[in-house]
Amino acid sequence: MVSVVRTSLRLKSNFPSSLLRVAAHFSSSSANRQDAKRGLLERLANGPVIGDGSFVITLEKRGYVEAGAWTPEAVLQYPEAVKQLHREFLRAGSDVMQTFTFYSSDDKLCLSGDNLDKTETINCENLNNVACDLAKEVANEGDALVAGGISPVPGYVEEKGKEFVMSEFNKQMKVFKEKGVDFVLAEFFAHIEETEWAIEAMRQLDIPIACSMRIGPAGDLSGVTPQECAVRMAKAGADVVGINCNYDPFICLDTMKMMKEALEEAGITSCHLMAQPVGWHTHELRDDVRGYTALPEFPFSMEPRLLTRTDASKFAREAFNLGVRYIGGCCGFEPYHIRAIAEELAPERGVFPPGKDKSEGYASLKKSVFKRQWERGSRQYWEDLIPAAGREKVKLLAQLDESE
Ligand SMILES: [Zn+2]
Question: Which residue range or ranges hold the Hcy-binding domain (predicted)?
Answer without folding.
Answer: 37-345
